[in-house]
Amino acid sequence: MHQASVLAPVHADKSYLFAYQPILDRNRTVVAQEFLYRRQRESGAQIDCPTEATATVIINAFAQYGTSEFLKRRKAFVNVGEDMLLSDMITLLPRSQVVIELLETSPISRELVDRCHKLKAMGFSFALDDFVGVDYYEPLLDVVDIVKVDLLQMAPEQLAATVRRLKRWPVQLLAEKVETVDDFERCKALGFDLFQGYHFARPAPVVGKRADPAKLAVLDLLGKINRDLDDQQLEKAFKENVGLYLNLLRLVNSAAFASQAKITSIRHAITILGRRQLTRWLQLLLFTLEDKGEHPSALFEAAARRGRFMELLMEGLAGFASCKKDQAYMAGVLSMADALLLEPMDKLVAKLCLADEVSLALTDRQGLLGKLLQLCCALETADFDAVDDLALQLRVAPDDVTKAQDQALAWVCQLGYAATG
């Protein structure tokens, strides 16, 4: 049977939930995404055919809702089982974008090793998932590009010894389950190049350390807008901070915002565009200041994605005014502000004079916005059972969750390139 006839019905299948987990480099910028997936509960959580499941991931991730655009400047890590690896279907993957993750459940046979060498010659890249030791994986270390090491599975002494042994091969080391700044710094010192975990999204207050004054100035401006101060006071605040003034003009004038006219002054921005859009730009500007890298920062991506995702889901809920969509967007973006500004969320909320619904979502994850925020977090951690439960409570169809998620990713792609371009 021709491969296209096999793939066509899989593309039409919408019975999978997806999670996209970022992979960071030593500068804490996102350089890749790992795709995780599971069949929706009503179809059964068990994936009966690994080949079909992987094909579903590939086709939906690269073709649906513009996600392929999101990956143009980064790699996509995709879990591939033995059946998929040995099938001709594997050659349909975009080899310049994909890193094939070899699962620990795949036995290391001569057939598997030979197949990897052939695919490597065709331009594919490989990563070893759940690395358990050099002796077991040695037959593959000449062909793989990346070795993923789970920090929770190795004591510090064992981790250091494993890194020393792996230096015999030209592989990049990826640390998984990096949960704290200390984990990140320790792995950097050992020679790890890539990192996966949630340390970047968690506040890590350091004694004597203060957030960037420019970011604090943005926070102050957001508070002033929420307190409904007049335009003259807002303009004065911008003019007193030249760096903030220039950054805002650059972001406002970017193509990603599709403004109808080029903004030439802060007064112009306030008058023509209105406070609603100005507030949104300020929220995102918090996460783009001093971002010099080729890729947008991990915090920027997470904050922007959460905001857009929650706004899209709110649009699909009947009976809510447009102000609720703005509140959903605000709650999503500001949910990462504590990690950015190194300050407890309750103190930040007090400074911003937010609506009660937004405050409750940010501090206690309560109310409708709180549930939407919980849904964001569940997707980020690939907690698909929680996604199912929360979607049911919110009366949101799982297909709508997937659609909003992918649309938010595509939007962040456009926005991020404008913010760092």
Automatic annotation (TrEMBL):
It comes from Azospira restricta. Residues 1-217 form the EAL domain. Residues 211-400 form the HDOD domain. InterPro entries: dGMP_Pdiesterase_EAL/HD-GYP, EAL_dom, EAL_sf, HDOD, RNase_Y/CdgJ. Pfam families: EAL, HDOD. This is EAL domain-containing protein.
